[in-house]
């Protein structure tokens, strides 16, 4: 149990909030926060990053269980080694990562839940300020309100900046780009009667964002037609990614300056992550994915991120651990300049 509380280990010691004073030296378990960070390393005031768990599931069409994904990610993260040999550092405590309580969305219907999540995300972004917000889903439908919220925020920031320029006008804000890691395009206008389905997540954001999908290998004709009709939609197929690494530069060239990353874990080959609702053969691998992500964070301004669609399998912990480590790498790459 490598992350067991050790007062001599940077970022792991200290007494938990309910047990201060005389009880502080007892062997309390790690907090149920991302990486098990204590108040010093995970407090909101000094955090550079915020984790928002959204365990929502309503429109899954095959395998269920995505509602348990955020909890499984947080639990597995408490056992991750904090040291990252790529940067010769312990990024977690240095970044400061605050974990919010889980959001419980309304059960009144998918449309109502997504409207509620949009309000939630607007308020979280406002409270977070300059902090980087990473959302844990839940099914992929939760990404749409988050992307819309970030697009609106970027538009407001652009307008404020233009208004501050002498003689300037507001102009039109550049569209953000969604970098979508996924086996599926999620471009259906609706699925099984719902426009708020997980299969429609990217269709709901085309009015505010361009989309670059990578790792795709399971789409319908409707989605191909949507992609061909929109100049701002690009599909990069999984088999392209296996032939050579040229796809990385192609994808980077398509990204605007402001990028939101949505990461559906069925992007990975099911040999790595079988615990997802609709696993598809022939997906992404670990190290080339990290290589690409590192470049994206270094060369673009990534404004927000989500990781969705982990559906934990009882007794099979490897996928939970992989996804938790992916979240850690995403945050490390976002703040990689701290360690260079």
Word description of this protein:
With 340 residues, this protein is of the alpha/beta class. It has a single domain (32-339), classed as Arginase, Chain A (3-Layer(aba) Sandwich). 33% of the residues lie in helices and 14% in strands. The protein has 10 helices and 8 strands. It has helices spanning 39-42, 69-77, 91-95, 110-128, 143-163, 221-229, 238-243, 246-254, 286-299, 318-334, and strands at 49-54, 97-99, 132-137, 176-181, 209-216, 233-237, 258-264, 301-308. The protein has an 8-stranded parallel β-sheet with strand order 2-1-3-8-7-4-5-6, with helices on both faces. Strand 7 (258-264), helix 9 and strand 8 (301-308) form a beta-alpha-beta unit. Helix 2 (69-77) crosses helix 10, helix 4 (110-128) packs across helix 5 and helix 9 (286-299) packs parallel to helix 10. The chain is globular and about 65 Å long. The model is unreliable at 10-14 (pLDDT under 50).
Topology:
Elements: H1 39-42, E1 49-54, H2 69-77, H3 91-95, E2 97-99, H4 110-128, E3 132-137, H5 143-163, E4 176-181, E5 209-216, H6 221-229, E6 233-237, H7 238-243, H8 246-254, E7 258-264, H9 286-299, E8 301-308, H10 318-334
Parallel strand pairs: 1-2, 1-3, 3-8, 4-5, 4-7, 5-6, 7-8
């Amino acid at each position: 149990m490598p992350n067991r509380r050790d007062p001599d280990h940077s970022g792991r010691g200290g007494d938990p909030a309910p047990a201060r004073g005389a009880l502080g030296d007892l062997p309390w378990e790690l907090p149920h926060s991302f990486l098990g960070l204590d108040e010093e390393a995970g407090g909101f005031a000094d955090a550079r990053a915020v984790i928002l768990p959204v365990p929502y599931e309503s429109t899954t069409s095959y395998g269920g269980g995505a509602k348990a994904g955020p909890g499984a990610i947080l639990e597995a993260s408490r056992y991750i080694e904090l040291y990252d040999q790529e940067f010769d550092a312990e990024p977690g405590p240095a970044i400061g990562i605050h974990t919010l309580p889980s959001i419980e969305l309304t059960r009144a219907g998918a449309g109502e839940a997504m409207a509620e999540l949009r309000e939630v995300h607007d308020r979280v972004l406002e409270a977070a300020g300059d902090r980087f917000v990473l959302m844990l889903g839940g099914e992929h439908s939760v990404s749409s309100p988050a992307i819309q919220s970030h697009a609106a925020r970027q538009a407001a920031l652009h307008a404020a900046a233009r208004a501050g320029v002498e003689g300037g006008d507001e102009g039109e804000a550049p569209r953000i780009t969604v970098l979508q890691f996924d086996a599926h395009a999620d471009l259906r206008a609706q699925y099984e009667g719902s426009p708020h389905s997980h299969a429609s997540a990217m269709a709901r954001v085309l009015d505010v964002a361009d989309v670059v999908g990578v790792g795709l290998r399971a789409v319908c004709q409707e989605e191909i037609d949507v992609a061909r009709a929109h100049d701002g939609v690009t599909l990069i197929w999984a088999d392209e990614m296996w032939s050579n690494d040229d796809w990385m530069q192609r994808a980077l060239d398509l990204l605007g300056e402001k990028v939101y990353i949505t990461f559906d874990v069925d992007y990975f080959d099911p040999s790595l992550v079988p615990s997802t609702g609709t696993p598809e053969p022939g997906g992404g691998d670990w190290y080339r994915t990290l290589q690409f992500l590192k470049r994206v964070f270094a060369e673009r301004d990534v404004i927000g991120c989500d990781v969705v669609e982990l559906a934990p399998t009882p007794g099979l912990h490897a996928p939970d651990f992989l996804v938790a480590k992916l979240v850690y790498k995403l945050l490390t790459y976002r703040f990689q300049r701290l360690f260079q």
